[in-house]
Amino acid sequence: MRYLITSDLHGAPGPLEEILRFYDAQHFDALLLLGDILYYGPRNSLPPGMDCKRVVQLLNSRADSIIAVRGNCDAEVDQMLLAFDMMADYTILVDAGRRFFLTHGHHYHAQALPKGNYHAIIHGHSHLQGFTHAPEGTLIINPGSPTFPKGEGIPTFATLCDGVARIHRLDGSIISECNV
After folding, report:
1. What is the pLDDT of residues 132-159, one digit of tens each?
2. Beta strand 90-95 pairing with 98-103
3. Cα–Cα distance between 108 and 98 in angstroms, integer?
4. Going by C-beta distance under 8 Å and a sequence separation of 6 or more, which residues neighbour residue 111?
5. What is the full DSSP assignment across 65-132?
6. 140 with 133: CB under 8 angstroms?
7. What domains can you pick out in the chain, each with its CATH number?
8. C-beta of residue 142 within 8 angstroms of C-beta of residue 129
9. Distance (Å, rounded) from C-alpha 177 to C-alpha 155?
10. Cα(148)–Cα(129) distance, rounded to whole angstroms?
11. DSSP β-bridge partners for residue 18
12. Is 8 helix (H, G, I), strand (E, B) or coil?
């Protein structure tokens, strides 16, 4: 299957619309949402351009193709608006014999690995895109953030297709790739 992976949307419809155009044009099978979908957290003021109701509309229209996990800024009140489940701290995706651990990244990440054997651990939270490897060799994928990127400041998302993970700019161009 072909997966598009994003995290840390934080209620921004503009980047989500760009991602969904790429999703449709490239015919992906599922959208993996790694948390922090609607809100930016109580310590931050609401940035301009945020429209949680629009994000809800865009995502609910695709609920049947979404696999989502809860981020540290997601709450039960958010779940009440969404037509897909997003309250689990993690989920395990199995595809073509490969096991993928999907989580937001505030509990499990490169310094706090989950128990078990996985081909990749996929998480967001840090807003820093890239690939790393755990000491035992497990690939760790972070799609970055399309809304509030850190590091190089490039809005990004990721894809996972036929054993290859890629980090993309919002225009779809590939920044980096890694075999899983």
Report:
1. 999 889 999 999 999 999 988 999 999 9
2. antiparallel
3. 19
4. none
5. GEEE---TT--HHHHTT-SS----SEEEEEETTEEEEEE-SSSSBTTBPPSS--SEEEE-SS---EEE
6. yes
7. 2-179 (3.60.21.10)
8. yes
9. 16
10. 11
11. none
12. coil
